[in-house]
Amino acid sequence: MTGHRGQQRAERRGQQRAERRGQRRQEPNRRVTDGLAVRNVSHGFDDTDVIEDVSLAVERGETVAIIGPSGTGKTTLLRLLSCFHRPDAGTVETDGADVWALSERDRLDVRRRIGMVFQEANLFETTVRRNVSYGQHVRRSWRDRLAQWFSRLRGGDASEAVAESLDLVGLADAGSRPVGSLSGGEAQRVSFARAIAYDPEFLLLDEPTSDLDPRNTAVIEDAIDTARTRGLGVAVATHDMNQAERVADRVAVLLGGRLIEVGPAERVFTNPEDPRARKFIEGELVY
């Protein structure tokens, strides 16, 4: 049964990818009202500027790849988008509202709508199922948490969302396994499942496949594609050009803390406008 569902999903993904290539967005920097964005943000640490005057939007239902050499600020940009850091200048916006002008309660509500996956899986020493269900516990109101706790007492330990998330990353039968038994690739897939199990609106991924083999990389990339087709806005920081070209609708090239090019993936990779972006994409050292 699982194999049949997987085949159906693969067929749908193939059709959706073909449709997506014909619908590449042509206005990469337009203002959006239904997405997550940074506007003219700057941020640094210990008097060192890391991000300078950067503007970037992630709409629901698209994948944006942020590419650039190591140390150029990709992780910091994701942390700004996730509302983890307050920018030194500029604004972080969701649906047109300045996140850092909201009350602490409303800002927490925004953060609960954003999932993030880091390079390291950072799983808890318990079962796969409990790891994936963790976000459902901590990102809900106390009333909802109590209702879920009583449901678990009655035997409802594995929610449908947890099961679907594990199935998405090819681990449908791994719920009862201890995380210590997982390979590195499996652990990262569990981390991805945990990030989407509570149904976020945006998903931010920081080099999610940097240490994975081709098989696990393919599973994560397929899951990214599925998240996007479900309507999530996805941002992926990566130095893997091939991966960015495979998964992204738009590509943002970050160099020295500044965005030097943003545009449809096909154009950026075949005909970049900025000569520095062209050199980076062609494999030259530009830093």
Produce the secondary structure layout.
Blueprint: H1 2-21, E1 35-45, E2 48-59, E3 63-67, H2 74-81, E4 89-94, E5 97-98, H3 104-112, E6 114-117, H4 128-138, H5 142-153, H6 160-168, H7 184-197, E7 202-206, H8 214-229, E8 233-238, H9 241-247, E9 250-255, E10 258-264, H10 265-270, H11 275-281
Parallel strand pairs: 3-8, 3-9, 6-7, 7-8
Antiparallel strand pairs: 1-2, 1-4, 4-5, 9-10
Helix pairs in contact: 1-8, 4-7, 6-7, 7-8
Commentary on this structure:
- The protein has 287 residues and is an alpha/beta fold.
- It folds into two domains: 1-102 and 201-287, Rossmann fold (3-Layer(aba) Sandwich); 123-199, no CATH class.
- It is built from eleven helices and ten strands.
- The protein has helices at residues 2-21, 74-81, 104-112, 128-138, 142-153, 160-168, 184-197, 214-229, 241-247, 265-270, 275-281, and strands at residues 35-45, 48-59, 63-67, 89-94, 97-98, 114-117, 202-206, 233-238, 250-255, 258-264.
- The strands form two sheets. A six-stranded mixed sheet has the order 6-7-8-3-9-10, sandwiched between helices. A four-stranded antiparallel sheet has the order 2-1-4-5, with helices on one face.
- Strand 7, helix 8 (214-229) and strand 8 form a beta-alpha-beta unit.
- The longest helix is centred in the first third of the chain and has 20 residues, at 2-21.
- The protein is globular, with a radius of gyration of 19 Å.
- It starts with a helix and ends in a 6-residue tail after the last helix.
List its salient traits.
six-stranded mixed beta sheet, Rossmann fold, 287 residues, 11 helices, four-stranded antiparallel beta sheet, alpha/beta
